[in-house]
User: Which sequence fits this backbone?
């Protein structure tokens, strides 16, 4: 089955090794940069160019109107629900309204960066979304993990998610 329920894999597939990750302060060029352990092959690190402004891309990622369309890239009937404010919960759900997992927004810079941290029975997992302006519009990047199982499949799922963000933002 190509489509994988990524949060379910996290619950059963993550190892117990802690991974260091943090968010640095603004760089001198006013772009928020992430600092993660380099060459860590347990993390998804995917990006996509989008012919839309960072604000438009942000709206796609954080809008409830697109949550189910984007969630379908992870699994049929899944979606993310949040108010997208610092400290708020992010719920991964299945229709009609079944919460599967909940993370917390621990870093936020509107229209530029979101970090959501999860704790799966003592196993830390993070997702970092970065949206930066580019010559052709924007570049969105996702850094997510750690995964100890099916990393390559998760890369495909996250790449499909980013392609769906692109499709919606460029409409």
Assistant:
């Amino acid at each position: 089955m190509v489509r994988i329920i990524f949060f379910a894999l996290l619950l059963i597939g993550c190892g117990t090794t802690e991974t260091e990750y943090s968010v640095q302060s603004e760089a001198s060029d006013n772009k928020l940069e992430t600092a993660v352990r380099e060459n860590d092959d347990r993390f998804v690190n995917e990006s996509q160019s989008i012919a839309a402004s960072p604000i438009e891309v942000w709206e796609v990622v954080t809008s409830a109107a697109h949550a189910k369309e984007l969630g379908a890239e992870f699994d049929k009937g899944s979606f993310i629900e949040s108010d997208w404010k610092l400290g708020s919960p992010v719920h991964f759900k299945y229709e009609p309204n079944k919460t599967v997992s909940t993370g917390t927004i621990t870093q936020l810079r509107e229209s530029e960066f979101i970090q959501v941290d999860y704790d799966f029975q003592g196993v830390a997992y993070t997702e970092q979304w970065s949206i930066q302006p580019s010559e052709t519009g924007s570049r969105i990047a996702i850094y997510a993990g750690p995964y100890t199982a099916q990393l390559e499949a998760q890369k495909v799922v996250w790449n499909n998610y980013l392609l769906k963000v692109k499709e919606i933002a460029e409409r």
Summary: The longest strand covers residues 98-109. Confidence is low (pLDDT under 50) at residues 1-38.
